[in-house]
Design a protein that fits this description.
The complex is a heterodimer. By secondary structure, chain A is mainly β. Chain A is built from no helices and twelve strands. In chain A, the strands form three sheets. In chain A, strands 2, 5, 6, 10, 11 and 12 form a six-stranded mixed sheet that branches. In chain A, a hairpin with a 2-residue loop joins strand 7 and strand 8 (62-65). The radius of gyration of chain A is 14 Å and the shape is globular. Classes of the chains: A mainly beta, B mainly beta.
Chain lengths: 114, 119
Amino acid sequence: GDSVTQMEGPVTLSEEAFLTINCTYTATGYPSLFWYVQYPGEGLQLLLKATKADDKGSNKGFEATYRKETTSFHLEKGSVQVSDSAVYFCALSDSGGGADGLTFGKGTHLIIQP
Amino acid sequence: ETGVTQTPRHLVMGMTNKKSLKCEQHLGHNAMYWYKQSAKKPLELMFVYSLEERVENNSVPSRFSPECPNSSHLFLHLHTLQPEDSALYLCASSPQLPGQPDSGANVLTFGAGSRLTVL
């Protein structure tokens, strides 16, 4: 079945540091890939997505590139802020049809220190 | 009011209680979902409703009973739960119907969740 693996947290960085959160996936067919973010006390919000190989999703300074050859969708940001502290979830949606609920990773808790 | 609204935000119940979680979306979406979020585990898809019809039930115990009276409302009825059922229950909705072409690019909009504690 489909699965998503992302790096374990928490990840602690200083403000303005470079961020990478690794995500790899296993899926049949050609999935769409997503990053969701969950701020404390809130639900998940879509951060960015990519629907086919070599697509780059970007939003709020975050980027991720759909790499089919390495089955990866790593999240990056050049300079993080304290306000980026949250839990980040990598997810996929299998385009093979059926009930298209997303398959999520376990989440990576990011802590940015001033 | 816009978005996906879940009530109550927090619920504490005993194992013999019967309670319900409510989800409401004002986005005109056609599909609604229940997810369970437990610490250190991936989000677990529990139920999917497409135009008020249940299309997915991921081996969820019968002590969880969903209800979708219309495309804007989704309930999760809880009965004789166990302490291990304590978790954050997230509702989501999406504009596209599961199984349709390009539904793989479906974007889900989540509510803030209902934090359930079973004593």
